[in-house]
Each structure stands twice: as structure tokens, then as C-alpha cells.
Design brief:
The chain is α/β, with parallel strands linked by helices and about 250 residues long. The protein has 7 helices and 9 strands; from the N terminus they run ααββαβαβαβαββββα. It has one domain.
Amino acid sequence: MATKDEHSNGITVARNKARDAEQDAKFYSFAKLDQYTFKQRLIIRLAGLVLYWLIRVLGATVKFKVTGWEHHTESEPLVYCFWHNRIPIATYFWRQRGIVVMSSQSFDSEYIARFIQRFGYGTAKGSSTRGARAGLIQMIRAVRAGKSAAFTVDGPRGPIYVAKPGALLLAQKAQAAILPFSISLSRCWRLPSWDKIEIPKPFATAHVVIGERIYVQDADDEREQTRFQHVLEELRDRSDALAREVS
């Protein structure tokens, strides 16, 4: 017969599994839109669907050329890090891997979240009172449980191409490696947003440059932050240069 301690441990394990299953359901399910007006709910649903089909159709015509694939691994969870204006094509390239991303509390973020969830991603959201901190905690737990995460390092509002330390903190707390990368398109449309977000034109070539994995010791160390910034800049310069050669 099981001892009292064994019985208690069994209950704890079962509760943890139930909690993880509930959290997974939240990651991969569309959020409720109760706080929005009927018009806003309609826009969110329609925009998320239109963006999904747009990128799915255009992405199918894009030719991907990858440099540095040897730095990627499926044997451990990773924190994928890249620039905010490459979201559409990066979403298509890394699709159907169960990667968890952070989604902020805003109207625009709701349809972006639905767009990426349709490509097999999960979204971690902060509460209205704790904001990004709560979302980061969810991502740390997800990575510790074996899921990979993705971070747009200069998002959600910029300034463009200035890396913030959130990804370093996530990697340190979750004890996971950062996988920095950049994707540049030979031909694209640029939207009138703060970061000039890029939408691939039909039959464009996408150059993906993946950097070496980074293991973070101290997210608050300015030297690590500076190194992180320089790595991302170098990868962008390399992928942009390759894209210009075929544009």
C-alpha cells in the first residue's frame, strides 16, 4: 500500500499536471473579447483571419535560404530572438512548433495573437494589473516545462532595432539558450508602422541567418546586454546584405 507521503506526492503531481494542461489550453486558445465593443470584436476576428491567409498564401511562394542552421536544435527549449518588423515572415518560417510568444494587452495585439496562433504558436498574456511581468512569468514556466519561446527584442513599441533586456531575463530565469536570428526579404511591402513592418511580396527570397546559441549568466550585466545588441545587429546586417544581392 502507498504511504501517506507517497499519496500526497501523487496528488501534487496530478495537480501540477492539471495546472500545466490548463495553462496549455490558454496558450493555444483564442482569448475572450468581452472587454471590446461589437465593432472591435468583429475587426479583431476579421483582421486576424485576413492576416493569416495573406501570410499563408504569400509565404508559400517565398524561397527560403538559411545560413547557420547548425546552430538550431530540437533537443532543448530555445528563446528565439529577432526584430519586431520581421514578425510576418518569421511567423511563417517557424510555424507549427508550439513556440510561445508574449502578447501585450492592447487592441492591436489581439488580432496579431490570433494570426500567430493559427500558425501553431501559443501566446502568453499579462493581466490588466500586472501587465508584461505576468506574461513573462508565464513564458518562464512554459520554457522550464520544455516549450520554446520567441521574443521580438525591440517590441512592442520600439525604438526600432534597440534590444530590450526581457529576452535575456527570460533565458536566464528559464535556464534556456537564446537563438538569435534575422530574416530579410529581397522584395517586400513596408507598412506605415513605427517599425515599418515587412510583408513579403510574391515569390520573394527570404534570407534567414541564424546565430550561435547564447547562454545568459546575468541579464542585468550591461556587457551581456551590449553583446546581445551587437549580435542582433550583425545578423541583421548579414541577412540584409544577402537580400540586397538578389533584389
